[in-house]
Design a protein that fits this description.
Distance between the termini: 71 Å
Number of helices: 4
Structural class: mainly alpha
Order of helices and strands: HHHH
Oligomer: single chain
Number of domains: 1
Number of strands: 0
Shape: elongated
Radius of gyration: 19 Å
Strand content: under 5%
Length: 109
């Protein structure tokens, strides 16, 4: 790997390279969150934060992939992003239903 290439980057390239590394860090953080939560519970757990880190990191990586004009990377991040957002939608829909049931049950005194 030629490290001289890093010193020849434009400002835009440096910003986007930094953006890409931050995106990758967010994406990797989801595994740490999941691992810690599972260790605390002593069972496999996928916390809601996992899906938020997935969506944020995936969106940022998709932006980076589009900037790089990398079709393989774009397709991979796009399909993953659909899954992450769908899971968040399902989680929030379930919470709305639970709140509705709780409100209906609270008035039955």
């Amino acid at each position: 790997m030629n490290l001289d290439a890093f010193f020849d980057l434009s400002i835009e390239e440096m910003v986007m390279l930094t953006f890409g590394f931050v995106a990758q860090a967010l994406f990797a953080a989801r595994f740490i969150v999941q691992w810690v939560k599972s260790e605390i519970g002593r069972k496999s757990v996928v916390p809601v934060a996992f899906w938020y880190f997935s969506a944020a990191g995936g969106l940022m990586m998709l932006i980076y992939a589009i900037w790089r004009k990398d079709p393989v990377f774009i397709v991979g991040q796009s399909t993953g992003l659909v899954v992450y957002l769908r899971n968040l939608h399902l989680i929030h829909r379930e919470k709305r239903v639970e709140l509705s049931v709780a409100k209906d049950g609270a008035g039955d005194d």
